[in-house]
Write a structure and sequence with these properties.
The protein has helices spanning 20-31, 56-59, 78-94, 106-113, 125-132, 136-146, 148-153, 159-170, 196-212, 215-224, 229-233, 237-247, 253-276, 290-314, and strands at 8-14, 33-38, 64-65, 98-103, 186-192, 282-283. By secondary structure, the chain is α/β, with parallel strands linked by helices. It has a six-stranded parallel sheet with strand order 3-2-4-1-5-6, sandwiched between helices. Strand 2, helix 2 and strand 3 form a beta-alpha-beta unit. It starts with 7 loop residues before the first strand and ends with a helix.
Amino acid sequence: MSDHPQPKLAVLLGTNASGKSELGIRLASHFGGEIISADSRQIYRGLDMGSGKVTPEQLRFVPHHLIDVAAVTDYYSLAQYQRDAYRAIDSIAEAGKMPWLVGGTGLYISAIVEGYELADVPPNEPLRAELESLPLAQLVERLEKADPEAASRIDMNNPRRLIRAIEIAKAGRAHSAMRKKSPRYNCLQLGLSWPKETLEKRIEKRLQDRLAVGMIEEVAGLRRLGVSDIRLEKLGLEYRYITRYLRGDICTMDELHLQLGIAIRQFAKDQLTWFKRDRRIIWLDTTKDYFQEACDCIQKWVSASDEVQQIIKAE
């Protein structure tokens, strides 16, 4: 056995509107740690309200990493995220602090926790243009032919993920390379969600709040800066539906609110389905003091890890 234990990485994951960002800040502050964002939109500058990005006031409590690291027009791959996250996690751990991976992008979290060996394939714009014109059923069929292993693992309701998987397969780098794993960290995963009715109310309130404080204006501003509607459509539900509203495809605010609310609720359901596949995740009980429950879990995990290391040294 190695005398060098894996660095510890605490993970807090959850669905949209679960409150994971706020809880992550409380926990990281309590344990003297720093946060690495696991959100595929918060990496982009200018995507603030629509991505639920932490505020400057919150950033003063706990340092955050991998927020605002790329322009909206940049191509930022999963492999690039993994490299940058590894770098941030290692730097935090080497400084004697606890790194916290906090977010809701399941693939980002899995890439770090599982240690996927990823194929870093650049975008193939002609292929993407062809695939983006296809209906979902045809994308599924194309992926099943190109990489059956990837088709068995990927979210079949997510056209962007399907297109990326086909792109990787066509480059001769099987997406199923994600089966190869080299975990780098001793991870404790805590999950935060709510009963269905409660979560739906939280989603509705958050949507109302964001629409009231300028989320539509944020998207309109990005369009004025030259960000294309095609790009905005790819940046998540809020940006997709608001772009359609600004373009006139959705005619009224009421219809925007209705369609976007339905889409976000479905996305939260899909997030939970993804996370529930990993039975190692400890789901916090939101009917009780879940902050204290999280603290207790962390303390037990740290103590158990320290005991294991003492046994290894004694041998």
